[in-house]
Design goal:
Layout: E1 4-7, H1 12-22, E2 33-38, E3 46-50, E4 56-59, E5 64-66, H2 68-79, E6 87-95, H3 103-119, E7 124-135, E8 147-150, E9 153-157, E10 161-168, E11 176-179
Parallel strand pairs: 1-11, 6-7
Antiparallel strand pairs: 2-3, 2-6, 4-5, 7-10, 8-9, 9-10
Helix pairs in contact: 2-3
């Protein structure tokens, strides 16, 4: 199962946490960073929301520059007395954008991989893009019902907009995602 990301499709509370993080607390749409971790190599169980402004050098609608060492250290501190993490999935948002990594994303991928490798061993790294899609009306019948929309993507309707998570490895090469 390594190399496959299992999206916890029945955990609507977890999905709502992802929505809230991507929506940046209902602030202006800017790129944000969050990390999902887990005790297995493929299922995320915890969300780390990185909204401390001292971690960011820049956050605009088209770019985010965050201190990845501080991100990795925060996660390492949490797991110091615990097993794991075996899964680290670092996401950044593309507000209203494309699930494909930008040229800048690809250029910086190796740096992100090296930072996490310094803090963790025997883990699976995913880099991901959270697309904040079009506004949508609240429809309880379709709310938080994720569907696999591509080999490496899962999408769902949130309370106010559509959401897509696209998964990649540490070089921004597509990785499989399944809804579990």
């Amino acid at each position: 199962m390594r190399g496959t990301f299992v999206f916890p499709g029945t955990d609507t509370d977890f999905i709502q946490l992802i929505e809230l993080r991507g929506n940046n607390g209902a602030q202006d749409d800017v790129e944000t960073v969050f990390v999902l971790t887990g005790e297995t190599y493929y299922v995320p169980t915890r969300l780390f929301a990185f909204d401390d402004p001292t971690h960011y050098r820049e956050a605009t609608p088209t770019a985010v520059d965050i201190d990845n060492r501080a991100v990795a250290q925060t996660i390492a501190d949490f797991y110091e007395e615990r097993v794991g993490p075996r899964l680290v999935a670092r996401f950044h948002t593309h507000p209203g954008g494309n699930p494909m990594p930008s040229t800048k994303d690809k250029r910086n991928a190796a740096k992100k991989q090296r930072v996490f490798d310094r803090y963790f061993d025997d883990y699976e790294l995913f880099l991901g893009i959270h697309v904040l899609g079009e506004p949508c009306d609240l429809d309880p019948d379709w709310l938080r019902r994720p569907e696999q929309t591509a080999t490496n993507a899962v999408s769902w309707r949130g309370e106010h907009r559509t959401h897509t998570l696209a998964l990649y490895n540490g070089r921004y090469e597509s990785r499989s995602v399944v809804v579990g």
